[in-house]
Amino acid sequence: MKTKINLFGRCCIGIILLIGLTGCSEDPIEEDPVAFVQAIPATNSEIQQDATIIASFDGTPSGVNVNGGKFSVSGANVTITGPFTPGTLNLTVTWSDGTQPLAYTVEGPESDEPDVSPDSQGMVLIEAGEFRMGSNSGETSEKPIHSVYVDAFYMDEYEVTNAEYAEFLNAKGKHAEAGKEWYHIGNQFSRIEYVSREYQVKGGYENHPVTFVSWYGAMAYAEWKGKRLPTEAEWEKAARGGLSGLTYPWGNAIDSNRANYNRHVGDTTPIGKYAANGYGLYDMSGNVWEWCLDEWNGNFYSVSPAQNPLSGANSIQWLLDNYT
């Protein structure tokens, strides 16, 4: 997919001038700090996904920032716009003189079904519902186990193959955009090459999952297909296959008959080689790592909202609109 001599001379001159002026000038006038007045809608209220939030101050705030969302400053008002993801919305408005938390409950659509039903060929519908996310025996970033509700969504039955990704690269005629590399051409383990002005898959790897794709490359491919990457919560719910409290999609033990893991094969394996999980999804454990939509945060599980959690942004749409 992370002069020193000249400057000193100027500083000395500045200090000398300042000392010379303090004896004959009045004490400097300190401006009162700009204070938060109110938010409309009021904090702790319910709002719609397309709501506009206006935070008002008793003066013009400077150095304004709002975590994970679009905002603008006009005079004494900071305007925060959606769309926001249904569930708990926690905002923090910071400015030079202070910090103000804002909390809302974002109402979801009336139906739990996805807003737009894509062409379901090659995809599986994961029904809306609650599941237990995380692990108390894994890494710190996987703790604690917590209950999460996720709206219904579709997931591809198989991982994206080298052949499919090469088709995308040829359609675009490039493997990078705006300084962001989509695919790592030239790596000894890359299975797609650029030969005679065409992206070609190395023989025998057409049906293997594509690797060495950046997050930007995964986002661009999904957009080209009219889809998007899953959030981490969506991915984990899909990976569990409807089971709860187990380490793997089939139980608590793993062996080489169930997945390609721990380099025991020494290479990727073709998609669908191993049995599907309870939702009919393949390679949700093993073979290759898979990108998720939202930002990785090692502490997110400890503060995760209970409904449609999303790390690093206020809404899925905001990420889709601003990932480049």
Can you describe this structure?
The chain folds into two domains: 71 residues, Immunoglobulin-like, CATH 2.60.40.1220; 215 residues, paralog of FGE (formylglycine-generating enzyme) (Alpha-Beta Complex), CATH 3.90.1580. The longest helix has 19 residues. A four-stranded antiparallel beta sheet has the order 1-3-6-5, with no helix packed on it. The chain has a four-stranded mixed beta sheet with strand order 2-8-7-4, with no helix packed on it. It has a two-stranded antiparallel sheet with strand order 9-12. Helices cover 19% and strands 23% of the residues. The chain is an alpha+beta fold.
Topology, please?
Layout: H1 4-22, E1 36-40, E2 45-47, E3 52-57, E4 65-66, E5 70-74, E6 77-81, E7 87-95, E8 98-106, E9 123-126, E10 129-133, E11 146-150, E12 153-156, H2 162-172, E13 176-177, E14 180-181, E15 192-195, E16 198-201, H3 215-224, H4 232-240, H5 300-303, H6 316-322
Parallel strand pairs: 2-8
Antiparallel strand pairs: 1-3, 3-6, 4-7, 5-6, 7-8, 9-12, 10-11, 13-14, 15-16
Descriptive labels:
324 residues; paralog of FGE (formylglycine-generating enzyme); alpha+beta; four-stranded antiparallel sheet; disordered N terminus; 2 domains; 6 helices; Immunoglobulin-like
Q: Order of SSEs, N→C?
A: HEEEEEEEEEEEEHEEEEHHHH
**Overall mean confidence score, pLDDT:** 86
How many domains, as an integer? 2
N-C termini distance: 12 Å
Radius of gyration: 26 Å
CATH architecture of the largest domain: Alpha-Beta Complex
> Globular, elongated, flat, extended or rod-shaped: what is the shape?
globular
Structural class: alpha+beta
Give the spatial strand order of the biggest sheet.
1-3-6-5
Helix-residue proportion: 10-25%
- Supply the CATH class of the largest domain: Alpha Beta
Let me know the largest β-sheet: 4 strands, antiparallel
Sheet-strand content, in percent, reads 15-25%
Q: What's the total number of strands?
A: 16
What are the segments in which pLDDT stays under 50 over at least 5 consecutive residues?
1-25
- CATH fold name of the largest domain: paralog of FGE (formylglycine-generating enzyme)
> Helix segment count?
6
Going by CATH, the homologous superfamily of the largest domain would be paralog of FGE (formylglycine-generating enzyme)
